[in-house]
Design a protein that fits this description.
five-stranded mixed β-sheet; Immunoglobulin-like; binds heme C; Helix Hairpins; binds copper (II) ion; alpha+beta; single chain; elongated; 39% helix; 2 domains
């Protein structure tokens, strides 16, 4: 009797637990759905490569769901069909002289092995997995196919703790110094395959813009080819997807996809150096503060007088042994020549403009955008407070407790001239 009652109570607890699990699952799904207005979205592809992945993913998911319900269904059927029913158990217990409510003679027939069943559940999954692996291999080969011409745009992607640098080679030749160097926003033309060369300056990172393609690791000392392509203009979020230290979660990026004409205009704009400001010009004071405090790490083409040897002196930690081939590349910090033309900063975790920048055409944000002054000033004042550095301070931007508020205002005014 005892046994049967305990069983009944256990059953009740099981259903209560199941209900809790389902509620938690539902809440998690609901919360993740509204966590961010630009989620890292793997399910709505926005380019042919991501399409290729989802064309594989959804059929496999379908097969997996069928298998799941078949297996779980069989288990639940067995449990229900062959469970000890309370009344039977009580009767058996009454009959028996032992405490055991199920006498030995009442156990169901015990069997061992069933050749046909076992063959079936070995062969069917093997065939299933073999078929899936063939389609997977085909997809892997297709994802690696580069259809862009040799002299088309190529971008070297450099991951580092904890931001992304993009070096543009307009003629496709990655062995020469880049034409454009920018950070965190990979601006690219729509409906055109963009071949990438992915590498790292320090530890292993992984490049991932889920709406455009899968992941590819960024490994120091190696370059991994990859491609991305987008069907529609827009801003697609990406994220470092290989744990790379303290601020790994804050190592985001965007692919900014433009119509061909806008893309051309962007390229022309980025090729222009910044003109050194003269005394009396707005931003001049800020430029002075910048040259005194910031130019040993940050490059502003045409303004910072780059002596690469000086610059890299004591910066080995940053450069990670990579050969610096261009005066545009600081080897340490984002190139700020066109900072104001970007919509985000610091690994794309802060918006540079208040009003959601994608509502303004990308090429106009620097003119029409409403500066997010709070985050930018806070960043300059104390970057490690906004985004954690390594404990040894050898990574990321240093704090500037010595700058006055006036100097910070001047710096911001200067940075906003960098369009
Ligand atoms: C020790 C080197 C160093 C110095 C000095 C330095 N920075 Fe930085 N700065 C960095 C690094 C590294 C990053 C990227 C940090 C990140 O994204 O996590 C950065 C990022 C930035 C960014 C965001 C750029 C982007 O596109 O994401 C701005 C703006 C900036 N710094 C401004 C300044 C100003 C202004 C100064 C001078 C007061 C300064 N920095 C001094 C290393 C430095
Ligand atoms: Cu990372």
């Amino acid at each position: 009797m005892m046994g049967a009652r305990t069983r009944g109570r256990l059953g009740g607890r099981f259903w209560r637990r199941l209900r809790l699990v389902l509620i938690a699952l539902g809440a998690a799904l609901a919360l993740t759905a509204c966590a961010d207005e630009h989620p890292l979205d793997t399910l709505t592809e926005a380019g042919p490569d991501a399409q290729e992945i989802n064309d594989l993913f959804f059929p496999v998911l379908g097969v997996a769901i069928v298998v799941f319900f078949l297996v779980q269904g069989a288990i639940i059927y067995m449990v229900m069909r062959y469970r000890v029913r309370r009344r039977e158990a009580a009767a058996a217990a009454a009959d028996s002289d032992s405490d055991d409510f199920y006498g030995d003679e009442d156990y169901p027939e015990q069997v061992h092995g069933n050749l046909r069943l076992e063959l079936a559940w070995t062969i069917i999954p093997t065939i299933l997995l073999a078929v899936i692996s063939v389609f997977t291999l085909i997809s892997i080969v297709e994802l690696n196919e580069v259809t862009a011409a040799e002299d088309d745009l190529r971008v070297t992607v450099v991951g580092q703790q904890w931001w992304w640098e993009f070096q543009y080679h307009l003629d496709g030749d990655t062995s020469t110094p880049p034409d454009i160097v920018t950070a965190n926003e990979l601006v690219m033309p729509v409906r055109q395959q963009v071949p990438l060369e992915i590498t790292s300056r320090d530890v292993i990172h992984s490049f991932w813009i889920p709406q455009l393609n899968g992941k590819r690791d960024a490994v120091p000392g190696r370059t991994h080819p990859w491609v991305i392509e987008a069907n529609e203009p827009g801003r697609y979020m990406g994220q470092c997807t290989e744990f790379c230290g303290l601020s790994h979660a804050y190592m985001r990026m965007y692919a900014v996809v433009l119509e061909p004409a806008e893309w051309e205009e962007w390229v022309q704009g980025q090729m222009v150096d910044a003109a050194p400001l003269q005394p009396g010009e707005p931003g001049y004071d800020g430029q002075e503060v910048f040259l005194a405090n910031c130019a040993n790490c940050h490059v502003v083409n045409g303004v910072t007088d780059v002596d690469l040897d000086d610059q890299l002196d004591g910066m080995d930690d940053y450069a990670g042994g990579n050969t610096i081939t261009s005066a545009l590349v600081a080897g340490a910090a984002p190139n700020l020549t066109h900072l104001a033309s970007r919509t985000t900063f610091a690994g794309s975790i802060f918006e540079l403009y208040e009003d959601r920048a994608e509502r303004i055409p990308y090429l106009e944000v620097a003119v029409r955008g409403d500066l997010n002054r709070g985050d930018l000033e806070a960043w300059i004042r104390d970057a490690p407070d906004r985004k954690a550095n390594d404990a040894d301070g050898a990574r990321g931007m240093t704090a500037f407790p010595g700058l006055t508020e006036g100097e910070i205002d001047a710096l911001v005014e200067y940075l906003m001239t960098l369009r």
